[in-house]
Amino acid sequence: MKHFNLEEFAGGKLSVQLNKALEKVTENIQDPNTDAQKVRKINVSISLRPNDERNFVSTTVETKLSLAPELGATTALSMGRDLRTGKVEAVEIFNHNQIPGQMNVDDVIDQEEDETPKAFDPDTGEIYEPSNKVIDLRKAKQA
Predict the structure, then answer these.
(1) What is the phi/psi pair of residue 51, to 5°?
(2) What is the maximum span of the chain, computed from C-alpha positions, in angstroms?
(3) Which residues, 6 or more positions from 17, have their beta carbon under 8 angstroms from its beta carbon?
(4) What are 34's strand-pairing partners?
(5) Alpha helices in the chain (DSSP H)
(6) Mean pLDDT by 10 residues, the chain (143 residues)
(7) Quick one: 24 exposed, middle or buried, by C-beta within 10 A (0-12, 13-18, 19+)?
(8) Which residue from 28, 36, 65, 78 has the least number of CB within 10 angstroms?
(9) How many angstroms from the chain centroid is the CA of residue 10?
């Protein structure tokens, strides 16, 4: 029996299907949202269906992929009931186990570090605010 050139088998469609499957597997392996250790598979199926006289065979070429599924994402929800309306509520808790809009101790410390202490009058507690405007009281008195 003569050997078949798989590059030309089924009008070259076997080679095309296999190359497309390899490309999809490569993309799946490079996807950071999939498990890197998961095994990927390409199954090539060649089905041969002969006629009753067995002199003609209908041949089907098919490739099937087994890819790694995308990794699941996890999050946390804070749930409760609004005391004013009685409706149930759920809010996603983001990074650092913090509900959106909720202050964190680290936020307060960061704000305090950013502020420079202001000079104040120890007797009255009045904060001295620098002013670039000099007011001449003699001129103000004449007006």
Answers:
(1) -85, 180
(2) 126
(3) 44, 61, 62, 63
(4) 70
(5) 13-30, 105-114, 137-142
(6) 90 94 95 93 95 94 92 83 88 69 66 67 81 74 59
(7) middle
(8) 36
(9) 42
Cα(68)–Cα(30) distance, integer angstroms: 11
DSSP state at residue 57: E
Exposed (0-12), middle (13-18) or buried (19+): which is 91, by Cβ within 10 Å?
A: middle
The CA-atom distances, in angstroms, between 50 and each of 47, 58, 92 are 10, 6, 60
Are 30 and 51 a contacting pair, CB within 8 Å?
no
pLDDT at 112: 55
pTM of full prediction above 0.85: no
Beta strands in the chain (DSSP E): 41-50, 57-66, 76-81, 88-93
pLDDT at 100: 63
Reference 66, options 51, 44, 85; nearest CA is 44
